[in-house]
Amino acid sequence: MLDTLPRAVPEIALQAIRKLIQDGDYQPGDALPSQRDLAEQLGVSRASLREALSSLSALGLVSVQPGKGVFVQAPPPATGFSWPYAEQVSAVDTFQLRYALEGFAAGLAALYLTAADIDALEANVESMRQELRAGHFEAAARLDFAFHCRLLEASGNHAMLQVITTNQDIFLESQKLPFIRPERAMETWQEHRKILRQLARGNQAGAQRAMQEHIRNAASRTNVVFAC
To answer: Which domains does the chain have, with CATH numbers?
Structure first.
């Protein structure tokens, strides 16, 4: 059974369905087996299958039509994501701003974080790990946003915090984007752990570098590349 493996079952099911589509030579518009048959074929629960199909639907790879079935869709464009705030600000500009502000804020936070702050950040990182393993990417993105906001608060620079919170929807969207690739979702958690290690050591330069690396990597996971 796939459910006995250590990775999140929905993620394993997602990759198995992708392979099924590729190996089965399914074309856009073709129907996959019924959800009951698909769950039995993959050896997963119906709940895990639904999580996987939901992620594949968000990626634009399948269309789940209640009462009709699951249909293969044409591959999405090379960008791999839709940025809903294009008329206000580009995704590239957003990630560049985060790179500059949040990298600096992480360095400041390393100087001011208390033991209680570190404990709260550790709890946040552990909660993210659990949500990612369960395939709950929306919840993981909100924990991601909370992690970054806590560092902005700890930095003591209220101007930077206000920039982020005033435009919360835009910045939260930029933190959801990397999860369009569920197979790489755990990289966000791993990068948060690196940041947290530097913060716990009070390493200003290390925390800044770790945060900037994290934001640059998050952008690349959505096919966004920017100069810095």
So the answer is: 2-72 (1.10.10.10), 91-220 (1.20.120.530)
The model's confidence at residue 8, banded by pLDDT at 50, 70 and 90, is low
Q: Do 178 and 188 form a contact (C-beta atoms < 8 A)?
A: yes
In DSSP terms, 71 is beta-bridged to 31, 63
**Residue 28 CB coordination number (10 Å):** 11
Q: What local confidence, expressed as pLDDT, does residue 138 receive?
A: 86
* Among the listed residues 148, 177, 176, 179, the one whose alpha carbon sits nearest the alpha carbon of residue 164: 148
- pTM higher than 0.70, yes or no? no
Of 161, 139, 159, 140, nearest in space to 150 by CA: 161
**CA 32 – CA 165 distance, rounded (Å):** 43
* Cα 57–chain centre separation: 16
